[in-house]
Amino acid sequence: MTELNLVLLGPPGSGKGTQGERLQEDLRLPYYATGDILRAAVRDETELGKTAKQYMDAGDLVPDEVIVGVIVEALESAEARDGFILDGFPRTTPQAEALDAKLADLGRAVNAVLLIDVSDDEVVRRLGGRRTCEQGGHVFHVDFNPPKVEGVCDIDGSPLVVRDDDKPEVIRKRLATYHEKTEPLVGYYDSRSVLRRIEGERKPEEVEAEIRRTLSTLRLQDEAV
Ligand code: AP5
After folding, report:
1. How far apart are CA 225 and CA 223, in angstroms?
2. Is 91 a catalytic residue?
3. What per-residue confidence (pLDDT) applies to 25?
4. Residue 95: which CATH number?
5. Out of 22, 102, 125, 163, which one is annotated catalytic?
6. How many CA atoms lie less than 13 Å away from 166 in the CB half-sphere?
7. Within a 10 A sphere around the Cβ of 156, how many other Cβ atoms?
8. Residue 211, CB half-sphere, CA atoms under 13 Å: how many?
């Protein structure tokens, strides 16, 4: 595979952010997590943040045209020329079509989509205990991945907080939104033969190992063509 244009797909709390951080270090590719980008915009009170906040707090998706513009700009940047990792985008069929169209303009295509598979019950367990670093967005869990010092990020020492959209009623809404709007992308990418399923209900290290194996296999298949 000459370049890796990778999409991480999966329900809220499936571990996209956890695995995305690890992959980014390994692969040395730019990592665009739309949730992180939007949360930074909300924090900085930019126009994007002001538009996005009401949707995010309610567990809804921000409008396609808002988020597509952000990603198109990122993909046009020089750093994304040799590949990229997308986390949280695309999340609807129009977003996937917009991504395909932009990449086709650049003579490129999405060549790997990893679906991190976890059940709704597991999502609720994970998001209920998630703690997120206020400054850098680093992710912990009170039981599954606790910080060394309670309430403090291991990486940059910032306070750990509960995300506004990790309240129980919003978690349920986000799951419903995922099933309705994002799950159809499983079929979309499967029909293009780029989808690979990753069993997500295992330890983070085991999920990471399966992702590495899957990406190596994809590279070998590509070299054999
Ligand atoms: P976003 O931030 O993308 O939220 P999400 O997709 O709901 O994903 P999460 O960040 O909640 O979970 P994750 O899969 O990254 O899991 P994590 O690694 O943190 O989006 C937020 C909002 O922004 C959306 O609701 C929407 O409003 C808006 N938005 C974003 N993109 C958009 C788009 N394209 N279009 C429109 N709107 C958009 O892990 C979760 C927890 O589990 C952590 O505590 C972690 O420590 C723990 N954990 C991880 N892996 C494991 C494991 N293997 N075992 C046990 N625990 C684990």
Report:
1. 6
2. yes
3. 87
4. 3.40.50.300
5. 163
6. 16
7. 11
8. 29
**Distance, CA of 21 to CA of 7 (rounded, Å):** 13
Tell me whether residue 8 is in a domain: yes
Q: How far apart are CA 87 and CA 31, in angstroms?
A: 8
Alpha carbon nearest to ligand 1 atom 12, residue: 13
Kindly report the average pLDDT of the chain as a whole number. 94
Confirm if 45 and 73 have CB atoms less than 8 A apart.
Answer: no
Domain carrying residue 96 = 4-30+77-119+182-224
Tell whether ligand 1 has an atom less than 6 A from the beta carbon of residue 32: no
Pairing of strands 195-199, 112-117: parallel
Six-digit token pair at 116? 């991190």
- Point out the catalytic residue in the list 108, 126, 131, 174: 174
Task: Say what the alpha-carbon torsion angle 210, 198, 220, 182 is, to the nearest 10 degrees.
Answer: -150
Give pLDDT tens digits for 11-45.
999 999 999 989 998 899 999 999 999 999 999 99
Domains held by the chain: number: 1
From CA 164, how far away is CA 88, in angstroms rounded?
A: 17
- Residue 196 vs residues 1, 98, 125, 148: alpha-carbon distances, Å: 16, 21, 25, 34
Q: Is the model's pTM score more than 0.85?
A: yes
Q: Is residue 187 part of a domain?
A: yes
User: Is-catalytic flag, 148?
Assistant: no
* 90, part of any domain: yes
Question: DSSP secondary structure string, 73-115?
Answer: HHHTSGGGTTEEEEES---SHHHHHHHHHHHHHTT----EEEE
